[in-house]
Amino acid sequence: MNTVIGISGSLRHSSFNTALLRAAVELAPAELRLETATLSGIPLYDGDIESSEGIPPAVAALKDRIAVSDGVLLVSPEYNQSLPGVFKNAIDWLSRPSSDIARVFGGKPVGVIGATPGPAGTRLAQTAWLPVFRALGLHPWLGRAVFLANAAQAFDTEGKLVDEKLRKLVADYLAGFTKFVEIFAAR
C-alpha cells in the first residue's frame, strides 16, 4: 500500500481546505494510505534562524514524513489569485538546506486540490504551484482537477463534504492520483 502525505495550506481551524483534506482521507481508495500533516508550528522562514539554530523541529518532522512517503497531496487555498504565503513559507523551509531537496521531494508524485468560498475556484493557485513543483523535482498529476468553488455550500456546519457531485469528483481525483502514485512507486 502506498502512503501519501496530505497537507492543508490553511492554519484556520474551520478551513474549507482542511475540511477538503478530511474528505479526501475519507474518500481515498482502499489501496492508498492518505495521512494528514499540518503546517502548525512552522515559523516564518529566516535564513539567520536556519544558520544559528538549524531546521526547526516541526519542519524536520514534516520533512522526514514526506521523505519516506510515496507522494504528496497539497490542499491549497487561493489567496489573491495565487498560492497562500503560509503554504509557500512551509515549502521554503522544507527545501532547506537545498542539498536536502532530492531526499525530501525528488521524483515524488504530487497532487493539488483546493477549495474557496469564492465563485472562481482555486485554478490560479494550483497553476501557481507548477514552477515550485518543477524546482523541487516533483511530478504533478494533471489527470483531473478539483477547483472547489462556493465551498460554504459544499460543506455542512461540521465541515463534512455533503455535495454528492463534489464527493464523486474528489473520489475520482483520488482514484486517478492513486494510480499515478503507483506508477512512481513501482520504479
The rounded distance between the terminal residues' Cα atoms is 15 Å
Structural class category: alpha/beta
CATH superfamily: Flavodoxin domain
User: Main β-sheet, in a few words?
Assistant: 6 strands, parallel
* Weakly predicted, low-confidence segments: none
Short summary:
The chain has helices spanning 16-27, 47-53, 57-67, 85-94, 101-104, 123-128, 130-136, 151-154, 164-185, and strands at 2-8, 32-37, 71-75, 109-115, 139-140, 147-148.
Describe the structure.
The protein has helices at 16-27, 47-53, 57-67, 85-94, 101-104, 123-128, 130-136, 151-154, 164-185, and strands at residues 2-8, 32-37, 71-75, 109-115, 139-140, 147-148. The protein is α/β, with parallel strands linked by helices. It has a single domain, classed as Flavodoxin domain (Rossmann fold). The chain is globular. It starts with a strand and ends with a helix.
Which descriptors apply to this entry?
Rossmann fold, 6-stranded parallel sheet, 6 strands, 44% helix
What is the topological layout?
Blueprint: E1 2-8, H1 16-27, E2 32-37, H2 47-53, H3 57-67, E3 71-75, H4 85-94, H5 101-104, E4 109-115, H6 123-128, H7 130-136, E5 139-140, E6 147-148, H8 151-154, H9 164-185
Parallel strand pairs: 1-2, 1-3, 3-4, 4-5, 4-6
